[in-house]
Design brief:
By secondary structure, this protein is of the alpha+beta class. It contains one helix and eight strands. Helices cover 39% and strands 38% of the residues. The chain has a five-stranded antiparallel β-sheet with strand order 1-2-3-4-5, covered by helices on one side. The protein has a three-stranded antiparallel β-sheet with strand order 6-7-8, with helices on one face. Strand 6 and strand 7 form a beta hairpin.
Length: 155
């Protein structure tokens, strides 16, 4: 009878160890999924906020410049036109193309093509609207979250 009880104790201990191991694996997998989901959301939130802050700073730096909204590859682009002391006039195009936010500086009146310039960060889409002195920017990040910002241009 003592030997049977000893075998039952060993089996119970092994079963308890197995349940503990399975629970530990389940918690680790669940934790990894939660971490991955949080990291993706944080990155998308960072991209959205950073893009809005970036464009806001571009608008603020361009006091006295002409602003316009143009179409490029079926999306809107903010075009900032500035004349410099050397007599040259340049256009800075800020737009989204192929899932990326781009900035391109070209000679005024140049033919602008989507994908030109520097890719800055991931962005699903961005829409610009001008209403008098107000620039309204609406972004949609890679997770589909939408954010808007309205800026008053300085003259």
């Amino acid at each position: 009878m003592g030997k049977k009880r000893h075998v039952v104790n060993i089996m119970f201990t092994l079963l308890l160890l197995g349940v503990f191991a399975l629970t530990a694996i389940f918690v680790a997998v669940l934790g990894a999924q939660v971490y991955r989901s949080s990291a993706v959301k944080m990155q998308a939130n960072f991209d959205t906020r950073t893009s809005l802050i970036y464009i806001a700073e571009k608008v603020r730096q361009s006091a006295g410049a002409d602003f316009g909204v143009e179409e490029i590859d079926d999306s809107s682009a903010l075009v900032v036109t500035e004349a410099y002391d050397d007599g040259n006039t340049y256009e800075t195009w800020i737009y989204v193309y192929d899932g990326k936010l781009y900035e391109a500086t070209v000679d005024a009146g140049s033919d602008m093509r989507a994908g030109s310039g520097q890719a800055i960060m991931d962005m699903k889409s961005m829409d610009f609207k001008l209403d008098g002195n107000l620039v309204k920017i609406t972004t949609v990040n890679s997770e589909g979250d939408e954010e808007s910002l309205a800026l008053s241009r300085r003259n």
